[in-house]
Amino acid sequence: MKLKAFLFSFSVFAYTGFTAQNIQNNPGSNHGNRFEQLGTILPTPNIFRTASGAPGHGYWQNKADYDITAYLDEDKRNLKGSETITYYNNSPDDLDYIWLQLDENEQSTVKNAGFQFPSTLPAATSDQQLQVTELPEKDNGYGVNLEKVTDAAGNALKYTVNKTMMRIDLPKVLKKGEKLVFKIDWNYNIPNRIKMGGRGGYENFAEDGNDLYTMTQWYPRMCVYSDFHGWQNHQFTGRGEFALVFGNFKVSMNVPADHIVGGTGECKNYEQVLTSDQMARYRKAESAAEPIEIVTLDEAKKAEKNHSKQRKTWNFEANDVRDFAWTSSRKFVWDGMRVTIPENNNKVMAMSFYPKEAYNLYRKYSTKAVAHTIKTYSEFTIPYPYPVAQSVEAANGMEYPMICFNFGRTEKDGTYSEGIKNGMIGVVIHEVGHNFFPMIVNSDERQWSWMDEGLNTFTEYLTEEKWDNKFPSKRGPAWTIVDYMKLPKDQLEPIMSNSENIVQFGPNAYSKPATGLNILRETIMGRELFDKAFKTYAKRWAFKHPEPADFFRTMEDASGEDLDWFWRGWFYGTDPVDIAIDKVTVAVPDLNTPPREAKDIQYKVEKPIQNEFEDLSKIRNKEDKNITFSVDKDKDLQDFYYRYDRGQEKLDANKDYTIKTEAGIPLDAKDKEKFKNLTGYQIDFVNKGGLVMPIILEFTFEDGSKLYDKSSAQIWRQNEKKISKTYYFDKKIKSIQLDPMRETADIDTSNNLWSSSGAGGETSKFQLFKQKQGGGAVRGGANGKVNPMQAAGKKS
Predict the structure, then answer these.
(1) How many CB atoms lie within 10 A of CB 567?
(2) Do residues 434 and 399 lie in contact, with contact meaning Cβ atoms separated by under 8 Å?
(3) CA-CA distance, 495 to 493, in Å (whole number)?
(4) What is 29-48 written as a DSSP string?
(5) 607: DSSP letter
(6) Closest CA relative to residue 190, chosen from 231, 236, 145, 244
């Protein structure tokens, strides 16, 4: 308590002294722009998006409903589909064409987006790679084959395919408030996603001759038309993900009769496609607190051996979703349990589908991780609104509404390492978490990957922590981003970069934004302010299309924190954090200093300063007979030029006056005893990295005690390169550690420690005297002269 008292009592003195001294000693070291407002960097608020970050009173978004039938031909590995789309124009604009996405064209050698990467001759390559590059102009047979595009009456619609995008030219303008119904029939050859890459396709299990299908980006999908972008029809290259429209889905999938199907939304005909035993287990799972096998391991193994030639149709429905994905295989074990979301009392079916190759991991952890994820995300964002949440083991990671695909297989003997287990749990949490970002808070992934990957990775970190406090999270903690921040500038881009242009995609889109949000929560804003603002953003933009400015503005609006300096540095810049302790000056008080003597200061009351040159405005105003100057009408204002009020006394111009300063009061014996062990420490900091951050210090004293102190980042606002801070303690410091918990992502901690044992040099002294209550030395103005309006003295 004694230490804290000294620290508090001298804090004001230390601050004001630093400010004046800093400006006086460094007259040319003005600040840069790190603390300036983002201003025109952010888009101008309007009736659609407000300055507070909330949707405006004029906010709108279009809608698309889908009715789809699909036929999975396992022998030909072909998908045939037919869809009816009902598109609602809620915008204030008339539309004479619409845009759709044909994502499967990215797998085609002739229809893809054409975004190539530079290449060099490798020292070694595979036969598969040679087949890909042998004849690039030859059509490999993949991509969407459009069979028919018509209106609701069956009349052909004119359309143009530009790589992965399709424009339909409308026979008449689609006006505000109108809807358009049209139909598309198509098919495509399903790619081997293990060999060809991509998010959707099939994986073949050679040992048993079966396929596992992940059907994603599988149907022509509406592009987003918005107030901030118009049509988002940027090409799909395989990296930048999706901008999609909310709507309702009815989907029927005709598959081999021994396949098990999982998909976005709820299946409406389990009674027709499941055996009676499976249906009974599903009913039991609907109220179970632990996962129950709906399709057992033995049933899955048996189904692998017999490839049925019969067919079954699974019917699914999903409302208020932006996309639809599904999976199909006879290899699936399927388990499920009920989880209740406390915030809205939503009873959700958490389920997992996985082949026998993942059984020992997924049976233990997957569905429980699904349940944990939607419950935890509901605490930090909005209550999970959907009826199901599903995890599918498919040797990769990708997310869709209510269903996601993850990895996590065991060795052949069923064993697994801790690394595989933790990786599997982490990816399940991450992909299930995507239900919130961007499936509900529906950002534009094609433009801003960080708005879904970064925000989701941050919330994944919070969820991993609540799963296991010792969980080895790879992204989120500040220290984990240091290696990336150390890279040369030519290998870095700002977070605010288009998805296609990022070199270090993982750190840029996932790790750095997640780390930044964690630093905001733990170090800059505090958990209470941050959590309220983060939940506000999720609530405001649930089932809507937010942009970066909506997030930045909401975080400030809901917290009362000016964070423009943080967005500017962490999101728009590439500077790292590297703050160093440059020097520590130690001083003790001179307790026997003679008190300051009283003395007189002479000054003269001068006439008011007038400009040497009368500009054009002054001359014209003086010549204008219609102008009467206020000073000419007010005697007191006239006197102002030559007299100054000081209580009952008038000061005349051109006369000498005297200010008498008060004498210092010597320290008495009690004071000397109180301050005999006092030591002052001036700590000089240098900002070597460029990115400003709070100054967090751990003082360790010679008696073993510790004290922590934190100054906000605003301490750098008047000099972003170097600052000093002074402390007074009544015991000696052994060491000073900057950022002891590594919470600011400082890239060089070797310059963060000062130790008294290696300090060297001499201890200086500072004068200490008592100050009369309410008194103090008279200070001059900026020009060094005493201000007679403030000074206390007598007329000579």
Answers:
(1) 24
(2) yes
(3) 6
(4) ----STTS--GGGSPPP-SS
(5) P
(6) 145
pLDDT digits (tens, 9 = 90+) for 193-239: 999 999 999 999 999 999 999 999 999 999 999 999 999 999 999 98
Three-state secondary-structure class, residue 457: helix
CA separation for the pair 530, 532 (Å, rounded): 5
Taken in order 462, 468, 469, 475, the sign of the CA dihedral is negative
Instruction: Convert the pLDDT of each residue in 385-437 to its tens digit.
Output: 999 999 999 998 999 999 999 999 999 999 999 999 999 999 999 999 999 99
**In this structure, is the dihedral angle defined by the CA atoms of residues 350, 353, 358 and 363, taken in order, positive or negative?**
positive
Give the separation between CA 245 and CA 684, rounded to whole angstroms: 54
Q: Measured between alpha carbons, how far is 111 from 358 in angstroms, rounded to an integer? A: 36
Whether the CA torsion 224, 228, 233, 236 is positive or negative: it is: negative
Strand order in the sheet with 793-795: 600-604, 656-660, 793-795
Q: CA 723 to CA 438: how far, in whole Å? A: 42
- Tracing tokens 């242009």 back to the chain, one arrives at 501
Strand order across the 764-767 sheet:
722-729, 679-687, 579-590, 764-767
By the 8 A CB rule, do 201 and 60 touch? no
Q: How would DSSP label each residue in 238-251?
A: SSS------EEEEE
Given the structure tokens 């018509």, which residue do they identify? 150
Written in H, E and C, the secondary structure of 196-241 is HCCCCEEEEECCCCEEEEEECCCCCEECCEECCCEECCCCCCCCCC
652's tokens: 């005349």
Tokens of 591: 């307790």
Rounded CA gap, 699 and 738, in Å? 9
8 Å CB contact between 100 and 244: no
Identify the residue whose tokens are 């008294």: 756
Bridge partner list, 159? 168
